[in-house]
Amino acid sequence: MPHAFLGALLVAIALAFAWSMGAHYTGACMGMSYASGSIRPRPALALMSALAFAGALLASHAVELTVGKSITGGSTFGLVGAAATVGSTFLLTTIFTWRRLPTSTIQMLVLALAGVAVAHGTPVRWSVIGGLAVLWVCAPPIAFGLGFVATRLADRLLSAEGARGALSASMTLVVMGALASFALGANDVSNASGVLVMTGVGSVWTAGLLGGLGLVAGVLTWGRPLLEKVAFDIVTVDLRMAIGAQFAQALLILGAALSGSFTSMNQALVGAMAGAGMARGRATIHASTVSGILRGWAIGPVSGFVVGFVAMKALGAIGAG
């Protein structure tokens, strides 16, 4: 295939994947604001789309370089391999979204990238993946601790009773949702557009811009199902607990992204919600829903590697033929 055509195809797949992620993470960013009645669905999705775009454009450069340069040591398997990587992860994310099962696109992307590299014969920096895996394991307990502390602080700082206190807490929760949306753009956009940096199709600025536009489209066109799942199926929290959990999630995710690492929005949120619940001495997560999410976490990375490997082998066979 002509190089220009392959480049255009890669950009199209990256945009489609970013669209799918935008829809997939609406609940993780704005679900609690919506569930609490602090904001209506359409304004929630509009606010999220604006902040996710800003995060992708302004704060995603470090993780774009991680995907583009660090996992394979700067080695590239070409536009075909890049398309296999992002196409595989896009397909899996879309399936999980269709099944209304939150999972980690980051873990699927990293393992799909490894699967494609192995199939192509490109060296993989397993030490980098191992470091990311340590962060993935540690993120929920860290979020738990942050959620516990943040909820206690919210109880102290937002303790006013009556309508004024409720309004203040509602507005603060919406701000926390906006912060989480910014963190989403910084943390997750490289899943879709990091391969543009890897292949030289675009710079970190171009990758952030294109990926951010894809996130906006996903939030606005298909974001409501996951928004409602997180809002009404997973959590049982009051306003100050929601503020603590959302702040803990955003702080952890944004800190990781700015350092060049990235971790799961959903895992961070679930850990933070559990910490918020512990601050009150009660459970805040519905066990049946969490068991489904845990299955998604277990299946996601393995499926990413397998589908990436198979896709690269298939595309390589087609190219050879």
Defining traits:
about 325 residues, mainly alpha, about 0% strand, elongated
Brief write-up:
By secondary structure, the chain is mainly α. 83% of the residues lie in helices and 0% in strands.
Q: What is the tally of helical segments?
A: 13
Radius of gyration: 19 Å
- Helical fraction: over 70%
State the total count of DSSP E strands: 0
Q: Give the helices and strands as they follow along the chain.
A: HHHHHHHHHHHHH
Overall, the morphology is: elongated
Separation, N- and C-terminal Cα atoms: 12 Å
Mean pLDDT: 88
Biggest sheet architecture? none
What does this structure look like?
- The protein has helices spanning 3-24, 26-35, 41-59, 61-70, 78-98, 105-120, 126-157, 162-199, 204-222, 224-234, 239-258, 265-280, 287-320.
- The protein is an all-alpha fold and 321 residues long.
- It has one domain (3-313).
- The longest helix is centred in the middle third of the chain and has 38 residues, at 162-199.
- The relative contact order is 0.22.
- The mean pLDDT is 88.
Layout of strands and helices, then pairs:
Elements: H1 3-24, H2 26-35, H3 41-59, H4 61-70, H5 78-98, H6 105-120, H7 126-157, H8 162-199, H9 204-222, H10 224-234, H11 239-258, H12 265-280, H13 287-320
Helix pairs in contact: 1-5, 1-8, 1-9, 2-3, 2-8, 2-10, 3-8, 3-9, 4-8, 4-9, 5-6, 5-8, 5-13, 6-13, 7-11, 7-12, 8-9, 8-11, 11-12
